[in-house]
Amino acid sequence: MTTEAVRWPQPSDLLTWFRTENVVNDTQEQSTATAVLSEAIGAAYLDWYQEKLTLESQLLQAQQEVMEWKGRCDRLIDGNGTRHVSADGINQALVVQKVKPHEPARFDGSQDLEVVTHFLDDVEHYVHQGGAVCPKASKDNQNIDTLWRFLSTRVFRWFEDAMRKRGVETIPPRDGDYGVTWESVRTSFRKQYVPESTISVIRKEWHALRYN
User: Across the strands, what pairs with 77?
Assistant: First the structure.
């Protein structure tokens, strides 16, 4: 099956039809009609051509994405044809690729209640969105393991010392188990970086709002 090239109607074609149908008779009207038709056809062609370029660009991008993912899937299969990940695993990888969790901002030791609270909440949200390094670990271990990865060097030293006092010799532990709850680490973290004076002021303000 062959596809013939599309031939755009020329102003002279339409003008001939106008004359045949007695739509345009006067010479001046013919000139005006020719100019109007030429402009209309030119504008329509330009719109079509721009849309054609846009569609071609989108098609090329889609083809590149298909080839990229094909290459990734091929790398998941060894030379013997053994697939190292299920189809569900590939689909999950696609989802993670499209919706990459937003990393928490690095905590530098700010003694601001709002900053500390937001940081701890961001760590939990990051883990909830699938950003943990060890997704098969318990939620407590995931949160703790994620926390230290977003600490400045100075804050990490405090964290390392605090965990050592709890019996954790290395960060991360060799078995991946920190042996403490996330809530206890969160509480210790807040006590370390939120001054007691700030907590006292907040308590007084809350007491005033509650009883006044």
Answer: 83
